[in-house]
Amino acid sequence: MRAPGSNLAPAAVAVIALATSSDAEGTLRSAVEASSLASRMTIGAAVNEGYFDADDGSYSQTAASQYNLVTAENSCKFGATEKVQNQFSFDACDQVLGFAEENNMAFRGHNLCWGVYNPSWVDDGGFSSAELTRILQNHINNTLTHYKGKAVAWDVVNEAIEDSAPYGLKKNTWNNITASGDATDYIDVAFAAARAADPDTLLFYNDYNVASMDGWSAGKSDAMFSMVKGMRDRGVPIDGVGLQMHVGCGYDLVDGVRANMQRYSDIGVQTHVTELDLTCEQSASYDCTWSGEVEEQQGRLYADLLQACVDVEGCTNFETWGFTDAHTWIKGDSHPLPFYDDYSEKKAVAMMMDVLASAN
């Protein structure tokens, strides 16, 4: 399971400017928009367009009132948008964009290149390195052209690094793009294509088990930092990194997360917390006996991680992967998100609002 005073470059501080359109008071969205953080960071959630009408509209209402950024959980990925070669369908992804625009929210794109969730024609096509290069460039160009000027950021490459030492790149179809013989060729190709297609959107690398530079994730976290710094040094247009955190309530590496965010900020790279959920038990089933004590522990960790983001100028988005236990990718009775099945708030919401209020 996935556990996961700045000198920022000009592109890396171009956080989207959002008017305050939410009428709901006492929400995460109103708290961040009323705070001194409003021009620097967004607070977001992954959403699924299939749930927009769910639960008598509670899903859409909660998302729009509580958050000012959304990411499509699955509908903008390669496998969803180019199921047949060179035949693009953005209908589902557009629904998420439309929801964002209707509610004056930022839209964050996820993702353009991943070793999984590809259509079968990509993985089974037996393409040469040159053919794969053209396929990847064409997909990125068409996708970013369609969303040009509409997405604040894109996860250009997703989850490429192995989980264990020596932390090379995972073996997948895109590894066959090796024009120079360098294993990072396809990553460089993807970022260059993205920048050519949209000069203004922020370009991110996103991964898990990398959030803290201390503890059990230190090895992969260091490998990712080294990769990103190398990209920056050779002029690859990368603006930020996404730190996934699918972890349990007992996660105790918050100081390492803060330090990791700071070292990226120090080299001009933004950080986004992109995929955060906190299961109440880090076990094979993720099930637990829910109690007030567990709720308090979960809420404190949500607040502590948000505080780490607030503390580092280069952290410009704090985002949970979903927002209600009614609709989460994690199976079992694990209670991972800030809102209960019935959309009532857990203690995490008030605790996070306190962090945002204290930023003033």
TrEMBL record:
Residues 1-24 form the signal peptide. Pfam families: Glyco_hydro_10. It is an enzyme of class 3 (hydrolase). Its EC number is 3.2.1.8. It catalyses: Endohydrolysis of (1->4)-beta-D-xylosidic linkages in xylans. SMART domains: Glyco_10 (SM00633). Residues 31-355 form the GH10 domain. InterPro entries: GH, GH10, GH10_dom. Keywords: Carbohydrate metabolism, Glycosidase, Hydrolase, Polysaccharide degradation, Signal, Xylan degradation. PROSITE patterns: GH10_2. PANTHER family: BETA-XYLANASE, GLYCOSYL HYDROLASE. Belongs to the glycosyl hydrolase 10 (cellulase F) family. This is endo-1,4-beta-xylanase. The lineage of its organism: Eukaryota, Sar, Stramenopiles, Ochrophyta, Bolidophyceae.
